[in-house]
Specification:
This protein is of the alpha+beta class. 20% of the residues lie in helices and 40% in strands. A hairpin with a 4-residue loop joins strand 2 (35-55) and strand 3.
């Protein structure tokens, strides 16, 4: 199939093409409590073809893509390719260049021990500190070995093998007839058993505390501390603001060589794109377009260094080298996590939903569990909402020196924000 697709794409009469062959080999397990309910193995092969069509003498370039089954007949392939060629011809984006730089990194072809990874997940979950009132309700484990072969019409070709895993866990806490159910999803490359146990032990504690939580009081604008994976939403805002596409669309007014805010009273953030990150489920050194992913500073000490993105938008910004950013590190600040938890503050650890608008920086979240620190006392609270502007909070943000990895993101373990509004229900 791969050879046939290459031949047909080469003879299609288009400006250029890309072809990705992906094989997903994996195991899936479904547990009720700690009892295996069912399991299955999978081995899936698929192809994605993308074509580029130039129009009006090369002034414009359009693109379209489609998935192609490995069992598709030659007639079906011809029809699919003709269809995406037609679709691409209708698009009229300003012309840009495709990836043509040679791949300088060695191919990543280390096989993945799917069985061993799955066993590590099961072993880690079996050693949680459960009780009669705080326990695992159910969990599902998905472990995959992905082999991705990327090639294009400019002679770029690369093969990468990498692991991708996920554990979905439901924990319960109950007191009499009152019961709380918490859902957790952990994405990673392989299994980090120690981190998995630590995070689920916290979830059991959160469930226990949720049973005794009081209504969140009216607080106006307390200092807010974030110490769970919800904080990734905060940090992703900085990555979005250096996205080349957002720059071209007017969704960011940040400029290379300029600070992200006029004045800093807290910590100055640094953001670095990573070519590799251990135990990320996106640990591949070449992106889907065939561009090599390099270590690059996007923001350093609060000053924008460069933008990132696909070849299309990188070309528009005049960037010779650019790529996707599958892995990123947000560097911590000057204080310890313990120091950031001094004084009065509200630490929020559970939301029903938490979002940061990538365009305007609006923060919005429905509070499900928090710990209110006031006058040396700690009160467990629930209900109400968090809102405000991250853009306005950036100058006074503080980050811990300690770091925490959440799949493909490394962020400060504790973040302290000022100026956000907490709407209480009492």
């Amino acid at each position: 199939m791969l050879d046939m697709l290459k031949e047909k794409l080469s003879g299609l009469g288009v400006y250029g093409w890309e072809l990705t062959e992906t094989r997903t080999r994996g195991w899936e397990f479904y547990f009720i409590g700690h009892r295996l309910d069912q399991n299955r193995a999978k081995d899936i092969l698929d192809y994605r073809a993308k074509v580029y069509v130039a129009t009006e003498g090369g002034k414009y370039l359009g693109a379209a893509s489609a998935l192609i089954s490995p069992t598709a007949s030659e007639t079906d392939v011809d029809r699919i390719l003709a269809d995406i060629k037609f679709q691409a011809g209708l698009m009229k984006d300003p012309a840009y260049t495709l990836t043509s730089l040679p791949v300088t990194v060695p191919e990543k072809r280390e096989s993945v021990d799917v069985e061993a990874i799955a066993e590590s997940f099961i072993a880690a979950l079996a050693t949680l500190p459960e009780t009669d009132t705080e326990y695992i309700n159910s969990y599902e484990i998905f472990v995959n070995e992905l082999t991705r072969h990327t090639l294009n019409s400019n002679g770029v070709e690369y093969t990468c093998i990498f692991p991708s895993s996920m554990a979905e866990v439901v924990v319960n806490a109950r007191a009499g007839d009152h019961e709380i159910e918490l859902y957790r999803a952990f994405r990673s490359g392989t299994c980090d058993g120690e981190n998995l146990r630590s995070e689920l032990a916290r979830a059991l504690q959160f469930g226990r505390d949720r049973l005794i939580a009081q209504p969140t009081p009216i607080l106006d604008k307390p200092d807010v501390v974030l110490s769970t994976d919800d904080a990734v939403e905060i940090y992703s805002y900085f990555l979005d603001k250096t996205f080349a596409r957002f720059k071209l669309m007017g969704m960011t007014d940040w400029e290379a060589g300029k600070p992200i805010c006029p004045e800093f009273k807290g910590d100055r953030i640094s953001v670095r794109a990573l070519s590799s990150l251990r135990n990320s489920d996106r640990d591949f050194p070449v992106d889907a377009e065939g561009s090599v992913i390099e270590d690059r500073d996007l923001i350093k000490d609060g000053v924008v260094q460069c933008f990132w993105g696909s070849r299309q938008f990188a070309s528009y910004l005049g960037l010779e080298k650019s790529s996707a950013v599958p892995n990123v590190r947000y560097y911590g600040g000057t204080k310890s996590a313990e120091e950031l938890r001094q004084g009065d503050f509200l630490e929020l650890v559970e939301f029903s939903d938490f979002q940061v608008d990538p365009m305007g920086g609006t923060v919005a979240g429905e509070i499900r569990l928090g710990y209110l620190h006031q006058g040396g006392r700690v009160t467990v609270v629930t209900g109400g909402s968090l809102s405000g502007s991250l853009t306005e909070a950036i100058p006074t943000m503080e980050f811990s020196k300690e770091e925490k990895q959440y799949n493909n993101n490394v962020i400060p373990a504790v973040t302290r924000l000022k100026g956000l509004t907490v709407t209480g229900i009492k």
